[in-house]
Amino acid sequence: MSRAAPGTPRPRTGVSNQLAALLDQHWPGPRHLFCSLTSAIALAFLTDYPTPQSAARLGQARMAAFCTRHAYRGGKPPSELLARLRSAPTAPLGLPAEALITLVTAQVRLLVGLQATIAQLETAIKARLTACSRAALLAGLPGVGSINLAQLLAEVGPILDRVTSAEQAAAECGAAPVTKESGKSRGVYFRWAANTRARKAITAFAHNSRLQSPWAAELYANARARGKRHPHATRIVARAWIRVIWACWHEATPYDPHHHPAAQRFAAA
């Protein structure tokens, strides 16, 4: 599979941060009204109520109708959402309503456009995955999603094809440390000379896997108990997974937790 085209999460984060800063200064109410400021319902709310003045007459009935119209599934009743909106601090220096409408609307439109672009890219990536013969080898990995799977195939896959061992693959992916010795001194250090895109792909998977796999969670917990910081512990999990991925890749065998000896030993214990 060819290298995945870069998506747009960073521009989305930048625009989201700008919108959050704008709301904090001039319209704090909607800032934490819903689970995420980039969610569809949060953007819909700001489209309908871009200023404190536009939401001044918003009551429980209108809030309930809004939630129904936009299929709200956050689990909070309209009364609680309204109370959360009303209890937010009031901006000490508010912009004129016309100016705030212009600014909020512009940021919301940018986010909506970026969300649509990201959705199109994700659809295209999923389509490419179905056409990739090796995608099935790693699709069963715990916690791997379509985007992360595409990252593994595009960034880690060429390394697996090129190197001669799992340990060499771990080194090129930046999941294995560097050992330096001089005389009687010996130290183990972070590996800077590595494929940073492959490191990002494998550590993102390692982080997700520990939330789904008891075996990966145990590896992570043991590393943390030994005093390792979160990034180091995540790389330890990534290094272990590279050995598993190496076997799947070179034996042309899809990952199956029932055929993973270490995971089975953990489950039996």
Characterise this structure.
A hairpin with a 2-residue loop joins β1 and β2. The protein is 62% helix and 4% strand. The model has no long low-confidence stretch (mean pLDDT 90). By secondary structure, the protein is mainly alpha-helical. A two-stranded antiparallel sheet has the order 1-2. α2 runs antiparallel to α5 and α3 crosses α4. It is elongated and about 70 Å long. The longest helix has 35 residues. It starts with 8 loop residues before the first helix and ends with a helix.
Summarize the SSE layout with pairings.
Blueprint: H1 9-26, H2 40-48, H3 60-69, H4 78-87, H5 97-131, H6 135-138, H7 146-162, H8 166-172, E1 178-182, E2 185-189, H9 196-209, H10 214-225, H11 230-251, H12 261-268
Antiparallel strand pairs: 1-2
Total count of helical runs of at least 4 residues: 12
Tally of extended strands? 2
Distance between the termini: 38 Å
Instruction: Output the structural class.
Output: mainly alpha
The stretches of 5 or more residues where confidence is low (pLDDT under 50) are none
- Biggest β-sheet, characterized? 2 strands, antiparallel
Overall pLDDT: 90
Morphology? elongated
Helix content: 55-70%
Order of helices and strands: HHHHHHHHEEHHHH
Beta-strand content bin = under 5%
Radius of gyration: 24 Å
Biggest sheet strand order reads 1-2
